Amino acid sequence: TDDRTGTGLALFPPAFRWGVATAAYQIEGATAEDGRTPSIWDTFSRTPGRVHLGQTGDVACDHYHRYAEDVALMRDLGVDTYRFSISWPRIKPDGTGPVNPRGLDFYDRLVDTLLAAGIDPMATLYHWDLPQTLEDGGGWTVRDTAHHFAAYAEAVYDRLGDRIRTWTTLNEPWCSAFLGYGTRDQAPGRAEPASAFLAAHHLLLGHGLAARALRAAGAREVSVTVNLTPVSPRDPQDRHDVAAARLVDGLHNRIFLDPIVYGRYPADMLEHTARFTGLDHILDGDEELIGAPIDFLGVNYYAPTHVAAKVGTPSSDRFPGTEGVEHPDPDLPVTGMGWPVEADGLRRLLVRLARDYPSTPLMITENGAAYPDSAEDGRVADAERVDYLRTHLLAAHQAIQEGVDLRGYLAWSLMDNFEWAYGYDKRFGLVHVDYDTQTRIPKDSALWYSGVIGRNGL
Ligand code: GBH
């Protein structure tokens, strides 16, 4: 890596933000406390066969009761930013309608505890836990949900806006739409390609409406987080492989990025959407609403995508719209999730974003890896995670050297937690959690990461 300092360190810019991220349903537990109603993830996790061993977020890391201990862990890490999410069914048990003050009280306590520890709270308003009552009315396939989301966002801002500077509307709308409504991998567990496209639009509309409402109410920083992946064709000389890569890049990345940044769907993605749903659900003015100004784009990066054109008979398509596409084994090492590891994919992604969306500052809002680590004598030796984080941070540093306006890095995750359909089987934490005793043990990676933060580099 470049050494601009003569110290041998890859140093980050002085104002670079360092943090960790979590999400409400993955850590809080207390799913029936203080007026919270079920979300689609309560329903999904109770549906046989959907989550590993039928596990649920009922207890998770019991963060709802142990948040003070968890903030102390973050203070020890030395992070300046904590990205967490707010549970919609705690705030509005009916999804819409009256606010539940006891739900807001929890986040009020959390935010005050963070501020007292010198940690900047960064709130995500939707990390996948839609109130079940709204799903019963059609969920993200119906337009009203976008309006209910904006009203909920305003209610949260009303209570916490004096202390939270940075707001994020959605986490990973691709997952909500395509895995939730398209493939059944996530809640609400519907496998309806057309619904996936309807959901994608209404999620984006919800983002735009909420971003506008937050701004009007006085929010200082507004953002949205998308999960992006650089898509490479198996053979860059083969025009069919190149077309397959362009399609998957469209369905995964551009279909969200272009409306968010430029207030316009890419023409090829409009055509594609039309094949599944027609375009009647996209009203005049929607795209402009979706293009509400943001202060930075949150980027979650885990793995690259390698594709090829599929020759011969059409078989199962992995995600709605990707019939005719094949996902060849990229022959890379994999994490405990089976996801390929390629740190340079992060550099390529960031450089591409800076080229195609040059006026939008970026922040890495999630990056990390699951490995099956265990605690021995009070220590968790997770060398593979350290390696994953180290190589990805060096890739991010390289991207900055190449001119990318990258504002911060948030590791996924503060601690082991409920990994959605994988339950508690997969551990992404810097801090190990013993789910029998709720004991937290910082892993070697946590100690390593706090060193990086302390030096502002590695
Ligand atoms: C995020 O989603 C979530 O925001 C977070 O809640 C979750 O805990 C965390 O990541 C870890 O899963 O092998 O090429 O098929 C991640 C979204 C979508 C990223 C699927 C990896 C598959 C890679 N993921 N993708 S591949």
Automatic annotation (TrEMBL):
Catalytic reaction(s) noted: Hydrolysis of terminal, non-reducing beta-D-glucosyl residues with release of beta-D-glucose
Chain positions covered by the region annotation Disordered: 313-334
Keyword set includes Hydrolase: yes
Keyword Hydrolase assigned: yes
PROSITE patterns linked: GLYCOSYL_HYDROL_F1_2 (PS00653)
Enzyme Commission number(s) from the entry: 3.2.1.21
Highest taxon above the source species: Bacteria
Enzyme class at the top of the EC tree: hydrolase
UniProt keywords, alphabetically: Carbohydrate metabolism, Cellulose degradation, Glycosidase, Hydrolase, Polysaccharide degradation
Pfam family, one: Glyco_hydro_1
GO molecular function terms attached to this record: beta-glucosidase activity
Gene3D superfamilies: Glycosidases
Family (UniProt): Belongs to the glycosyl hydrolase 1 family.
NCBIfam families xref list: BGL
Protein name, entry field: Beta-glucosidase
